[in-house]
């Protein structure tokens, strides 16, 4: 059977002219500030703690950091409820500490992006306090309000009875997070404004101002929270795309080096909107979920269907047409850790995939040592089920795994006696950590494996194993052969993928006579001659 039914034609190289050059080989490490490293013994991670650990991140091969929100906040949603966009939360440090963190990152030839939450603020933000007043003022229409307390917002939840203003305020996520007013695409009620009306444009200008503030301090870009939902009632995304195109233009003029990644999960929209990168996520299209998080994910010993990923990813990849990167995170602060239900051998196979795909890789802190999802925790600061993925980083075998000298930490540690830690992993040559850093080093040594390198599915058939894809550029060609299944797998191919095995986990690959056979739970990267 001819399995080669994907076109082998070479794609045009990525159109990198409009992209910050450093994105070409950026490998990101996501840091959840409250849980990474506590430098002053109050049980909460902080910026100085992050600075102490930059060498660790750098040594593993990461050259970029995404920091979750670290701004002043009442922490009803772990900081995604910003009270002051221009002030570092005192528990994390000061604005000077942030400046120092940025400088220390740059000293190490790394980059740092911050988390921008443009869609909503905390209900304690001064703008919202002003907008709650019954008297008209500059902030009256900064948020979405209906015209009467008895009228609810269409399409999004609302809060009411919270002030003397006669109206209900729309909220984006929790009821503590009122939605800023960027207007409505389809306007079906009186209170809905157009995206280019005065107040929505003022909200836009305010966000540009916030971006300028941190870019002027030296940060290298933003991960944008809920990026596709600023303009409401916008089913095809066209008004959100226009809004982001406007922001992109502003950045291109004033901060052309600024890198932008969206929490949107629909690259055909976000990249059209001018984002450089978008995530595949655990909500929206099944693409990402089918790999790691569905009931029968592809990455499991019992097997799943890779064709779901293939079809959607190919569509996204084609629509991005070289103008942006599709990023596949190992996990993040909103989803179960990748180690949940997986052992170290499984995780090595997952990382062989994550770190050999195109798009910029994003590794969530702790995933590199196989930190587990901690079951059954009581919610902390709006985490609910997500709290188990937000536990403190495990550095060593001392008190609190070296995270904090405080007896009680904000989020409890994984109580498991065999929890992994950095120190032990570093000295164990078979550790996941060492595999992760080996894979990053390979990626950095081979241009074909990097973020803009070509990508092509070679074998990705429904319920069949292994998955095979090709990474290439003008200099080289590398095949990835990935078999998460708990059984050996074999397929026949009309092309020859003999060459140097750059990476292997799980045993040996056999590529004789046009057949490829691989052992259970294995992965290989092969550079053809
Ligand atoms: C995003 C964040 C999540 C937060 C939500 C509301 O999905 O990743 O943590 O709760 O937005 O801001
Ligand atoms: Ca602290």
List the helices and strands and how they pair.
Elements lengths: L27 E4 L15 H6 L1 H7 L3 E4 L3 E2 L11 E5 L6 H13 L3 E6 L9 H6 L26 E2 L9 E2 L27 H20 L3 E4 L13 H17 L4 E4 L4 H4 L6 E3 L7 H6 L14 H14 L4 E3 L16 H11 L7 E3 L57 H6 L4 H14 L8 E6 L7 E6 L4 E7 L5 E4 L6 E7 L9 E4 L3 E7 L1
Helix pairs in contact: 10-12
Bound molecules: alpha-D-glucopyranose and calcium ion.
Alpha-D-glucopyranose binds next to loops.
Q: How would you describe what is shown here?
A:
- It is a single chain.
- The protein is globular, with a radius of gyration of 24 Å.
- It has helices at 47-52, 54-60, 95-107, 126-131, 198-217, 238-254, 267-270, 287-292, 307-320, 344-354, 422-427, 432-445; strands spanning 28-31, 64-67, 71-72, 84-88, 111-116, 158-159, 169-170, 221-224, 259-262, 277-279, 325-327, 362-364, 454-459, 467-472, 477-483, 489-492, 499-505, 515-518, 522-528.
- Helix 10 packs parallel to helix 12 (432-445).
- By secondary structure, it is of the alpha/beta class.
- 52% of the residues are buried.
- Residues 1-14 have low confidence and may be disordered.
- It is 23% helix and 16% strand.
- It contains 12 helices and 19 strands.
- Strand 14 and strand 15 form a beta hairpin.
- Strands 11-10-9-8-5-2-1-12 form an 8-stranded parallel β-sheet, with helices on one face. A 5-stranded antiparallel β-sheet has the order 13-14-15-19-17.
- The site of alpha-D-glucopyranose has 9 residues, from loops.
